[in-house]
Structure formats: structure tokens, C-alpha cells
Amino acid sequence: MAHLRRVILITGIPRSGTTPFGSNLELAPGARHLYEPFNPGYGMQGISRHYEVPGANDFSLERFDACVDAIRRVRLQLKRYNNPRESGARRVVKWLIADRARFAYWRCRLDRSLDTVIWKDPNACFAAKAAVDRHQIPVVVTVRPAAAVAASYKRMGWHSSLLQVLENLAQIGISYPELLSDYGKHVENHTIGAAMLWYVIYSTLLEWAETRPLMRLVNLQETIERPIEYYERVFEWLDLPWSAAVAEGLRRRYPEQDRVDSIPSEALPQRAHVRNRAISRVNTYGAQLLTAEEKQIIEEICGDLWGRVKLACLSVDAPSSRDQPAQLAASG
After folding, report:
1. Parent domain of 235
2. What are phi and psi of 291, to 5 degrees?
3. Average pLDDT of span 129-156
4. Which residue of 1, 33, 72, 221 has the lowest C-beta tally within 10 Å?
5. What does the buried/exposed string (b/e) look like for 73-85 if buried means 16 or more CB atoms within 10 Å of the residue's CB?
6. What confidence tens digit (pLDDT) does each residue in 283-314 have?
């Protein structure tokens, strides 16, 4: 019988920092990440849409439970990589050899020391509640400002899929009628649609987190500004082993002086992960891509919520009674 590992879910809106956060948790001994098993393009067989909602459409709670069991056992049936936006040699290599998801999967499968699976997956954001309630999986929700996320969507030409998301959520009793009535005319706009998706995701996750000690929000900017202190706090909350080696690994990834960024923001390619970007500027890339009108609308939609979200994030300076180790919270 395949070994059942501990699972930690890292989620949030796409472009919120789930990839670097999940990678940094891999510094803990015995921890490796699975890359987006809920991505309909290259994730698990049976995942047919972005942002699956357990209990909606044909994605029953029982099917969700089966997915979690497969993740715990690291026994996944992954789809062949298929991204029509990718072209040339990169697409051929990913299809023939291994895309990011398959490579991460086989690293997990071949690691005999693996005891903690980091489930890194923005597409699983609306599965967070079921992950906690049905499986006691700790959930870390990464957060970036709405404008930074919207600028990234605009740069890459991503569509928010907001209407499908709202239809899925409505099936489990969650709706945002005022958002559509006030800003529905912008839903097909990549930039404003992304801001609306940001609002829906973090409104939902913030409400869920308020009554679930196993779900915490983290501010990506704080992890950049104070990586050692912040990750030490996160490791403590998640009951992951902290050591001098972990701290040194973070120092190498977050040098005090970033390299000079040789890529102007407007010249960034249309793909999610770009090398040689200064870490300290992660929340300012693409800011000039937004028009004054777009910035104003994004602030109208997300400004108040952003203030609430920041206050809810795990903080090094202001610990709360909720900042107990996730393993202890699960057993309690």
C-alpha cells in the first residue's frame, strides 16, 4: 500500500506567489511540492475546469476526496501537457519529456525521504474549505495586491474565467450579485476581470479563514522584505523543522542586494515565470501597463478588501491567538 504523507495546500489567485512560496517550503527536510494537480491543462485526469469547486458541477465531494487520497499517496494520473499558448521548442520539450507538473511529480515519487507533500495549486483555491474540513489539511493562502495581479494578467493576456467561477460558486450558495451589477460590463477585460476575480477569491477565502485555524493568509511582500523571520514563523505554524540550513537557503534566494534587473517591465515575455527579475520589485512589475482608469476601477473594487486582507495575514510583528502550529490545531 502506498504511504500516506502529510499534505499542505498552498493556494491563492494565480500570480500571487504560490510557486516561490511552495519552493521555499521545500527547504524543510522531507518536503517536496506537487505542481498544480488541479490545473485542467496538465494536472490530474478528471479535472476538467479551472477552479473546481467541491460539490459543484460533476466534481462531487467524493471525487474531491479521491483526489486528496491520490495526492497523499503521490499516485497521480497526469494529463499530457497541452497549452495552446505555448509554442516552438518549449512546447515540444514539455510534451515529449516533462512539463513542470510531471517533473515535480516524479521528484516526489523518487524521493524515499518524502513525508510532506506541498500541494502548490492556485486552481485549488475554492477547494480550501473542503481540504480543511474534510481532511484537516493546513492551507496557506498567498496574497499580492490586486493591481499587481491585474497587471500580470494584462501582460500575459489571461482571461479571468470569472463568469464560470461565479456559476460554480453559486451551486454551493456563494454569490456576488453587487460585483456583477456594478462592474459586469468590464468582465471580458483582462485587467478588470482579473481584479474582479481577485475580489471573489479573497472575499471567499477570508471568510472561510476567519473560522478555520488551519487556514492562514500570508502577504508575499512581507516574505520578500523579511524572509528569514517570516518563514521561520510560517515553519513554526506548519510544524515544519527549522534549521540553520533552511535559513541559509533562504538567504541565498533573497540576497540583501538584488541583482540589477536587466529586463524592463514592458519587455517581459508572455509567460508566468521569468528569470532575472529583482525579487524586491515583484509587486511593481508591470505597474506602468495599467492606465489611470484601470487603477481607479481596481481600487474601487478591491481597495477596502485589500485593507482587511492585510490585517488578516500572518505577521511576524503582531502574533495572534490563531498563530498556533497547524499540526496542533488539527489534533485539537
Report:
1. 6-260+278-327
2. -80, 165
3. 96
4. 1
5. ebebebbebeeee
6. 555 567 899 999 999 999 999 999 999 999 99
pTM of the model: 0.87
Whether 265 is covered by a domain: the verdict is: no
Q: Is 8 helix (H, G, I), strand (E, B) or coil?
A: strand
- Residue 127 placed within a domain: yes
Other CB atoms within a 10 A radius of the CB of residue 183 amount to: 19
- For the chain, the domain total comes to 1
Q: Is 59 helix (H, G, I), strand (E, B) or coil?
A: strand
35-77 confidence digits (pLDDT tens): 999 999 999 999 999 999 999 999 999 999 999 999 999 999 9
143: domain CATH number? 3.40.50
DSSP code of residue 13: S
258 vs 120, higher pLDDT: 120
Q: Is 239 left (phi over 0), alpha (psi -120 to 50) or beta?
A: left
Predicted confidence at residue 88, as pLDDT, reads: 57
Q: Quick one: how far is CA 16 from the chain centroid?
A: 6
Most confident by average pLDDT, 58-72, 79-93, 310-324: 58-72
In this structure, are residues 24 and 253 in contact, taking their beta carbons and an 8 Å threshold?
yes
Q: How many CA atoms lie within 13 A of 292 on its CB side?
A: 0
Average of pLDDT values for 117-128?
98
Residue 183 is assigned to a structural domain of this protein? yes
**Percent helix / strand / coil, the chain, rounded to 5:** 50, 10, 40
Cα(55)–Cα(303) distance, integer angstroms: 31
- In this structure, is residue 271 part of a structural domain? no
- Are 8 and 117 a contacting pair, CB within 8 Å? yes
User: Which pairs count as long-range contacts for 249-254, CB under 8 Å and 24+ apart, including other chains?
Assistant: 249/24, 249/27, 250/24, 250/27, 251/227, 253/20, 253/24, 253/227, 253/279, 254/224, 254/227, 254/279
Cell of 57: 458541477
